[in-house]
Amino acid sequence: MKPDSTVKFYTGFPSFEILVKTFNALQPTAENMYTWSQMQRLRAKGSNDVDELRKSLKQRKLSLFDQFHLVVQKLRVGTFNRVLADTFNISLPTVSRIFISWINFLYFMLGSFCIWPSREKIRQHAPASFKAHYPKCRGVIDATEIKVQAPSSMVLNNEMCSSYKSHTTYKGNVVITPSGEIIHVSALFEGSISDKELVKRSGLLSLLEPGDQLMADKGFDIKDMLEPIGCEIIIPAFLVIKGQFSKEELLHSKKIHNVPVHVERAIRWVKEFHFFDQVVPLTVIGSINQIWTVACLITNFQGPLL
Q1: pLDDT for position 36
Q2: Torsion of CA 100, 103, 108, 113, to 10 degrees
Q3: CA-to-CA distance for 159 and 197, rounded, in angstroms?
């Protein structure tokens, strides 16, 4: 058995035991997972026989666990397909097929669980500082961007161009609880989208309840979107606008100054999945939402960040 530190480095899971337990929970459904290439080969033979399909599934070159390990290793370490092909003694096309098939499978399986907790659960696990000063805080929100290969279309290139990153990107937001668990992952949109439009299209507003508070770093001002639904945004005072803090603003800013760092830490943990270190190629853009979401959800297996 590999040391937990090695398992965490290569997969993002905190221990081999948790990695195996996660796989065991997925295995019964994974046994019946049909890949696109398998279906195409059978149809090319003019066969739609389910028994023949199941028989072909048993003729895998890699065990299901090895396939699962290959996928989470590629996500976590960003291992090149050539290295994975040599390590697992399979072809390059097989690596690609396994990765895309499992990413979509994990997206379906992990995405079927509701990760938006109740107010009571959030308050129960919130740090003492939040309970004392912000008992109504439902989560901490921030946006992040992923660099992607520039498309050939000038129109699409313009839509994806991020002024912040000076690159073509996809942009999404992440919400964590005060205790550090990721509870909301938006879809990814073209990098030119504004923070307000991103929140509007993310589906987050429909999850909030009257009286909820969201915390964010300065610049993420969505007050006008939250007020109509009876919610509140908590952000630090704007020193550059006010010139100086009032006594009340100074005390308020000191309370929450470091709190938005927690969501940045959560995003950094997700981006420790080094698949995102390089510019994401257009060949996987069709599955980029699934890849990003799975990485975020696997991050929660590491436990609370705080």
Answers
A1: 57
A2: 180
A3: 14
The SS3 of residue 184 is: strand
Contact 164, 276 (CB under 8 A): no
CA distances 225 to 66, 197, 198, Å, are 46, 10, 12
Outline where DSSP puts E strands in 151-260: 161-162, 167-176, 182-185, 189-190, 213-215, 232-234
Percent of the chain having pLDDT more than 90? 39
Q: What is the pLDDT of residues 277-294, one digit of tens each?
A: 889 988 888 899 999 999
Amino acid occupying residue 46: G
Q: What is the pLDDT of residues 108-123, one digit of tens each?
A: 998 888 899 999 999 9
- Whether the Cβ atoms of residue 76 and residue 8 lie closer than 8 Å to each other: no
CA gap 53, 119 in Å, rounded:
46
Q: Kindly list the distances between the CA atom of residue 7 and the CA atoms of 20, 63, 235, 304, 306, in Å, as whole numbers in the listed order.
A: 11, 18, 38, 18, 21
169 beta partners: 147
CB 40 within 8 A of CB 50: no
Rounded CA gap, 194 and 171, in Å? 9
Please state the length of the chain: 306
pTM score above 0.90: no
Residues 118, 124, 127: CA angle, nearest 5 degrees? 120
